[in-house]
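Please fill in the sequence for the structure shown.

STRUCTURE ENCODING:
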């Protein structure tokens, strides 16, 4: 069984990994604006496969590593890469996110709201959360959508973006959305998606349901 201390270390590791992948897969225009880059997405997926297969911090158990042939993804698409307006919550509040283990909760800061317009012109919003760890510069975006339980993991997926100095607009690329570790190993206690981040659309981008689930 994974202890609370182990989960704290896991959270730090997860955010560090996310930060590494953000930097390793970013492509910028001349004005330093993030843009969609399919080759960077493909390279990032290769790095993740190597991490899951070979790294000691992988959530996979040894017998899973032996059988592992790669994570399952939707094909890369620019349709789910958006420039999102961001509004900082004037008085960010500390919240207790429920986890996949009912007796554990994750304390996070409810930080701000992203407003996104999809390819059909429909606007939807997602709340971003931050770790209470002052050293962490990532915004955590858990979400559910209409693909859950069919094409994607039933409990939802996660997306992260690096905190911007401007903090008014972000580039959200759902090709980089990923499953929580508990999708692969039930020993982990993963934050559940709060109701305010339940979407009524299908996000057909990013990681799909694990093939061995």
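FILLED IN BY: designer on duty
SEQUENCE:
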């Amino acid at each position: 069984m994974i202890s609370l201390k182990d989960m704290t270390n896991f959270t730090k590791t997860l955010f560090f990994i996310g930060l590494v992948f953000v930097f390793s897969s970013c492509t910028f225009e001349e004005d330093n604006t993030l843009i969609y880059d399919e080759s960077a997405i493909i390279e990032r997926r290769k790095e993740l496969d190597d991490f899951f297969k070979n790294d000691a911090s992988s959530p996979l158990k040894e017998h899973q590593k032996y059988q592992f042939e790669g994570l399952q993804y939707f094909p890369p698409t620019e349709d789910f890469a958006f420039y999102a307006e961001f509004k900082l919550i004037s008085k960010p509040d500390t919240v207790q996110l429920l986890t996949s283990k009912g007796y554990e909760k994750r304390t996070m800061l409810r930080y701000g709201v992203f407003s996104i317009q999809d390819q059909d012109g429909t606007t939807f919003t997602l709340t971003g959360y931050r770790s209470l760890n002052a050293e962490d510069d990532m915004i955590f975006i858990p979400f559910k959508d209409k693909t859950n339980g069919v094409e994607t993991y039933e409990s939802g997926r996660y997306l992260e973006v690096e905190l911007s100095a401007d903090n008014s607009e972000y580039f959200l690329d759902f090709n980089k959305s990923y499953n929580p570790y508990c999708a692969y190993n039930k020993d982990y206690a993963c934050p559940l998606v709060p109701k305010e981040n339940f979407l009524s659309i299908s996000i057909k981008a990013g990681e799909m349901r694990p093939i061995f689930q």
